[in-house]
Design goal:
Layout lengths: L3 E9 L8 H6 L5 E12 L7 E10 L11 E9 L6 H7 L11 H10 L5 E5 L7 E9 L7 H13 L3 H11 L6 E8 L8 H18 L3 H5 L5 E11 L2 H4 L3 H6 L1 E3 L3 H8 L2 E6 L13 E11 L3 H14 L1
Parallel strand pairs: 7-8
Antiparallel strand pairs: 1-2, 2-3, 3-4, 4-5, 5-6, 6-7, 8-9, 8-11, 10-11
Helix pairs in contact: 6-11
């Protein structure tokens, strides 16, 4: 049985969460949150108890011309093990995971929900609608290589990688090294409190570590001994960026990260590939000169400790 963390409550300040000056100018956060910081100390979980960690949130609305409500909305976010009831919520979050590709998304979601010892869904505590606000997990590419969804995922990744040297690296991670590679999946609603991010990622990587000790068979324990992670996501790229960049500031503004943690992962990555997306979102005025773009990154597992520290620093200092 996996060990479950305990925690204590902690108040975290909130400010715009991005590195580049332009991204800061378009990121507006006006909320204050109370969260419980989970710790490595374990406690036993009673059978059937799926609750992991509770995050208490006091969300304060920001004055603007577009808003009529000005008050405080309290929401209790909780971390849960994935379960079959989460299928539709998780599938909705992952609907455009591989752009507009028709693939076995339902089978992919099933695998995520079957892996209950590693992975977390975020929901509102005591929410009758059972809505899913976030999913985070890591799936072993070798363990699931014969499943239709992973065959189609591999095909998609190889097709969107135009650079021959990186195609070779990617093919290796998807092929002979697949048993050592975790597909890091992290999808969430856009307004999930950013203060939850360090706790989400700490929970994931702690569970991965525990799984190498606690899974019932050696094969399963070894399947979580990742040496690499692959991340598939989306960012905003400045249109005609290669022609327009002339200063360090311009280079900083060439990319905007929808998820702040992915700027850290991008810096730590061994290599990355940008690829065009068929599906595009309606751009805001601030993003009119940017194009939604796909990104694939490969990160060494040995760099995850640095990632966790940098993410905590980013949230604490922002």
């Amino acid at each position: 049985m996996p060990r479950k963390p305990t925690g204590h409550r902690r108040l975290l300040p909130v400010r715009p969460l991005t590195f580049s000056p332009f991204a800061r100018s378009v990121a507006r956060v006006a909320t204050a949150y109370m969260v419980k910081h989970h710790m490595r100390d374990a406690m036993q979980q009673s059978p059937g108890d799926e609750f992991k960690k509770l995050k208490k949130v006091d969300r304060r609305s920001e004055s603007s011309e577009d808003e009529e409500f000005h008050g405080v909305v309290q929401a209790d976010f909780a971390f849960f093990d994935p379960k079959p009831d989460d299928f539709h919520g998780v599938k909705t979050l992952l609907q455009s995971y591989l752009d507009d590709k028709q693939w076995d998304l339902s089978g992919f979601v099933d695998l995520i929900l079957e892996q209950t010892t590693v992975g977390t869904v975020v929901k509102l505590e005591d929410d009758e609608d059972n809505g899913v606000f976030s999913i985070i997990t890591a799936l072993n590419l070798g363990r699931y290589k014969d499943h239709k969804c992973f065959t189609e995922l591999k095909e998609f990744l190889l097709n969107i990688c135009p650079e021959k040297d990186k195609t070779g690296n990617l093919r290796s991670l998807l092929g002979d090294k697949a048993q050592d590679v975790g597909l890091l999946v992290s999808q969430r609603v856009v307004n999930l409190p950013p203060e939850l991010l360090p706790h989400l990622y700490d929970a994931l990587f702690d569970e991965i570590s525990w799984a190498t000790e606690d899974e019932p068979t050696e094969e399963l324990r070894n399947s979580f001994r990742f040496k690499f992670y692959i991340v598939v996501s989306k960012i905003y790229k400045l249109k005609n960026a290669n022609k327009k960049r002339s200063s360090s500031t311009d280079k900083d503004d060439a990319l905007i990260y929808i998820k702040p943690e992915e700027e850290i992962l991008h810096r730590l990555s061994m290599w990355s590939v940008l690829f065009p997306l068929q599906t595009q979102q309606v751009a805001t005025h601030e993003l009119k000169n940017y194009q939604l773009t796909g990104i694939v990154m490969a990160v060494k597992a040995e760099d995850i400790s640095s990632f966790r520290q940098q993410l905590r620093t980013l949230i604490n200092e922002s």
